[in-house]
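Researcher: Batch entry, complex prediction.
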Amino acid sequence: MACLALKGLLLAASPGAGEEVGSYAVTGDAIMEPLVGGKGDPARGAALISDRQRSLCTLCHSGPFPDAHLHGTLAPDLTGVGARLSEGQIRLRVVDMKRLVPNTIMPSYYRVEDEQGRRVATVWRSKPILSGDDILDIGAYLTTLKG
Amino acid sequence: MHALWPLAAVGAAAICGIVSAAGIEDGEERSGVDFMTPETQALQADDMSNPGMLWVLQGEQLWQQAEGRADVACAGCHDDASQTMRGVAARYSAFDAATERPIDLAGRINSCRAERQQAEPLAPESDALLALTAYVAHQSRGMPITPATDARLAPFRDNGRRLFQSRIGQLELSCASCHDDDWGKRLGGSVIPQAHPTGYPLFRLEWQTVGSLQRRLRNCMIGVRAEPLDLELHLTERARGLLVETPAVRP
Ligand code: HEC
Ligand code: HEC
Ligand code: HEC
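Model: Structure tokens for the complex:
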């Protein structure tokens, strides 16, 4: 049984992040400073958003992404999100939506607190779902969605 | 169709904060069949095309077949299944006094096989066990689910409810997040049903075979021994009044 669950886990996503979570400062409903240095790559961000194994975004969100018939309807459409929200606001929403909507179903992509008791499988433990670089690229892409 | 796999990360399974779930309102309970495409609905509705019926027919044969050191068939003791097994699946799982735990229909069949027929127990998810279980459950098709009221089941059912509502795994989702709060919406390409166990064992197109509710749950998320049965008790309670469909068909 554990085996099967693990199989599910491995399929779930490559535990690619595999890094420590750095600290960040929240200002209002945003994280003003990028989590890591360097310039975000919007093309890589676009690919990552559509990656159903790793980011899972389109399982819940629709938007101007490929394979519209496979988009979920559990979350707001991300069309025009770059006009509604600043890069810093988007960053906080991807990093830890629970700070804004405590009961949200959106996973906190860059948070590993409170893991005890949730029995996160070993491969995933102490790792954020996405890395700082991933979030930089996703932010760089989403800010281009102006309408 | 594989939408659930990615979210199987939830399956590292255990308990933490209990989320208060609104639940499904009275009168809003709907079987998974209502969320399927017309094509898949038609596949289930017509016994000539429903692939699960092959298991039911195989079960009918096994029912008649003498087995084990006792050299006796199920029919030897239980006679005509359409009389003696009618309604049994609609009230399972039951409390098993011998093990002091809940026992599901397949478990009950296997215990008759071991103790009454004195034969080797059938392997979980084996064709023979699925066939017998589908045959027995099929005798309740069209009857409303009326879970056993045995008080000894209560602690297990409560544990199942707690599990159902607990956010688990790296993604911190609970079964209730989807099946109580967001049923009818789409996760990727799949409509989220209410997760009622109305049609098990059932033919799943994704599996290309018949499987048990335990397999479905394991697949969905759970990696913790024994707990899937508790979850099953809770699911059956949630499905009270819905009609048994075995053998159902699901995407
Ligand atoms: C399991 C479901 C789920 C997944 C997976 C998910 N989200 Fe969300 N997301 C939501 C929900 C639900 C909301 C709305 C907040 C709320 O009310 O809970 C949301 C809100 C947002 C918002 C704010 C939108 C707005 O218009 O205000 C952004 C941006 C966002 N998500 C980006 C992402 C990105 C990027 C990913 C993948 C890396 C992602 N989401 C994955 C469920 C999800
Ligand atoms: C030698 C007799 C005998 C044989 C053979 C036998 N059973 Fe049973 N079975 C019983 C008895 C006795 C009970 C308990 C009845 C009760 O608890 O009221 C029972 C109970 C059951 C129940 C639970 C019914 C309920 O109301 O909870 C099922 C299902 C069942 N048997 C299926 C089978 C199947 C399938 C086979 C063949 C693989 C089989 N039995 C073979 C004697 C037998
Ligand atoms: C993120 C959403 C989500 C979560 C969390 C989730 N499920 Fe599901 N579940 C689904 C979807 C979508 C389907 C339908 C899949 C398909 O048709 O391929 C489904 C199907 C089912 C079914 C089959 C129902 C039928 O008609 O036969 C059962 C039972 C079930 N889930 C139980 C559970 C349990 C128990 C949990 C928690 C351990 C759980 N689910 C967690 C989305 C979810």
